[in-house]
Amino acid sequence: MKKAFFAILLISAAVPAIAQQSMPVEKRVDKLEKEMKAVQRKVFPGGAQQYFEPEIKPQVVPATPAGSPADSAVTDLTRRVDALEKALAQLTGQVEQNSYNLRKLEDQFAKMKGDADYRLNVLEGKAPPAPAGAASGGSLPYVVPPAPKSPAGGTAAAPAPATPAPATTASTPPSGDPGKDAYMAGYDLWMQKKYPEAIAALKAMYAKYPKNKYASYARNLAGRAYLDAGQYNEAIREFFENTKIEDGERAPHSYVFMAQALMKRKPPLFDKACQAYDVLQAKYPDKVTGPLAEMVAKGRTDAKCK
Description:
Layout: H1 2-14, H2 17-20, H3 25-43, H4 73-123, H5 178-191, H6 195-208, H7 215-228, H8 232-243, H9 251-264, H10 270-283, H11 290-303
Helix pairs in contact: 5-6, 5-7, 6-7, 7-8, 7-9, 8-9, 9-10, 9-11, 10-11
């Protein structure tokens, strides 16, 4: 096979050999090498490396490294954009839910504040603004019992002040302050459990000395005398009136004893007693300490306040 190939090559080259003799040797060698490579590609498809290195080699596809994405860059970007849009939608939904919860909290706080202001106004004797559309004469969070009426239909007159006890029966020596001495006279009667006489003496004291420091003591003790005598509505009214003097020495105590009277009356008003404790702690947080704080804690437990 090889001999026949070279014979053909010599015959084909013999004709132009004369014309090629005038060409330089380098060009003739280059021409022969190109022709041999062309014949090699014709006779030996794929190349014959034992003769010549082929000019055209089959393209080798590089192996894909492990872990490389099989998708194109556009597909990968599309997937990432979809994930971002989904995360943004979830975040937007969470923000809307948080805004809704915040609005609910604000509404609840406004309602609680309005209710607390309403109760404070009632307990302090102020006329609270009626809600829109509410009928006049509606029920209030706390209503002070009305004063007892006389048989003729009018309000009963206050009992006449009792004659102060003689000095020989007084347990407390005079102090030089007539207001304090008048209070102590009523206090001694209360200690002796002479409640009607004590109430009359104490009412006479705060009526005569309304600006005296012990006027708050006298009104609070008058309420306690009513409470001890089982006259709970009268006690509630007396304590309530004493709470109106906010800077009074015994105003905080009157809230506690008023709550006790509310729980003892028939029927008991436990929810109103809890309101009295709430107002006390809201108005006098720095004074609800020591024995008074213990009384408030026990009273709230007895009334089952929340």
